Amino acid sequence: MTCRFAALSLTLALTSPIVADWPQFRGPAGQGLADMKAPPTEWGPEKNVAWKVEVPGKGWSSPVVAGGRVYLTTAVPQGDGRSADQSLRALCLDTTTGSTLWDREVFKQDGKSAPPIHAKNSHASPTPVIDGDRLYVHFGHQGTACLSAKDGSVLWANRDLTYKPVHGNGGSPVVDGDRILICIDGTDRRSVVAFDKATGKVAWEFKRPQASSKPFSFGTPLVLEQHGRRVVVAPGSGVVNGVDAETGQELWAVKFDGYSVVPRPVAGHGLVYLSTGYDKPTLLAIKVEPGFRAAVAWKASQDAPTNPSPLLVGDELYMVSDHGIATCLDARTGKVHWRERVPGQYSASPLAAGGYIYLQNEIGVGTVLKSGTAFEVAATNKLGERTQASYAADGDAFLIRTERHLYRIAAR
Length: 412
Prior knowledge:
Blueprint: H1 2-12, E1 33-34, E2 49-54, E3 64-66, E4 69-77, E5 86-94, E6 100-109, E7 129-131, E8 134-138, E9 144-148, E10 154-158, E11 174-176, E12 179-185, E13 190-196, E14 202-207, E15 222-226, E16 229-236, E17 239-244, E18 250-255, E19 266-268, E20 271-275, E21 283-289, E22 293-300, E23 311-313, E24 316-320, E25 325-330, E26 336-341, E27 351-353, E28 356-360, E29 365-370, E30 377-382, E31 392-394, E32 397-401, E33 405-410
Parallel strand pairs: 1-27
Antiparallel strand pairs: 2-33, 3-4, 4-5, 5-6, 7-8, 8-9, 9-10, 11-12, 12-13, 13-14, 15-16, 16-17, 17-18, 19-20, 20-21, 21-22, 23-24, 24-25, 25-26, 27-28, 28-29, 29-30, 31-32, 32-33
């Protein structure tokens, strides 16, 4: 498995300089691949729990890990009811003990003026990204900020990129060289934005030219090397744009039917894989030829996800639908190896480690599958708490965020 992960990383040729345990949404390459020697396969409320700590407020952002520290964001209500003010915060915990090292308010959200969120969403859903001694946090339309990873002090904040969201925030920030990349997809503004990561000033903004009747989405970009250019693959409603990472100019685009796009793309074998969102999700495999001619190589419409991201491991592409159908496909052709039901409803993205595929449903049931072209369940694990956050890896341990707690799961 380690060789397969290494080969995939070379195929992707991702350009971010991030070097850390689990520095961004879906790990070092943003693909959900964890290089773990002996990952745990069994856990429960009292089994293989190294520590469990209560997290203040509510947030569906996933944890990130670097240098023996865990970072995550949360929103702490300042009153009762859906229109309460929110303290939008970042936290830092010790990975060994779970103790809080710092807890910092980044923004104050006015409950009366803030638009409502979807019942499944939170006010702190984008996953932060750690880069060296800096932590970058994003709260969608509420703003983006850079914090000191050491003590949480705010180094810069940008609240100028206002837009009208639908259902709240979602897409996570990405580091690429000297820049921070985000997707903005509201009813009045549809852009991919690059911040200067030292100052927080906008380096460039690409405005999607393709129209959409339902323009809101929650995309997280993926940066790839394609035909000698660094390309920001940025999904949005009705389109995925390939944007030059240096200039913000569009290099290619593929249109589709879909909106409220959440899954992060994955890439390999010369293809980019993404799901098209609501109402009828389709998994697209996109080929970008020299000259940046892009077209769909194959597609899979049955039981594609609207929220969980796909997962590419070697020659197999895995996906789990929101309603609990897991599928394994040939990554090159789209041929179905297996399609099977797994328990529950899903929002979290899957993770691959040590020859296993890890799924996490919305009521805290973790299903562990053996990777490969034959369907085999290795374990089913119950925490008994609601969750929509995705796994994070720390060495040979997992971090699992639930509605009220953060767990460190490690085999004993």
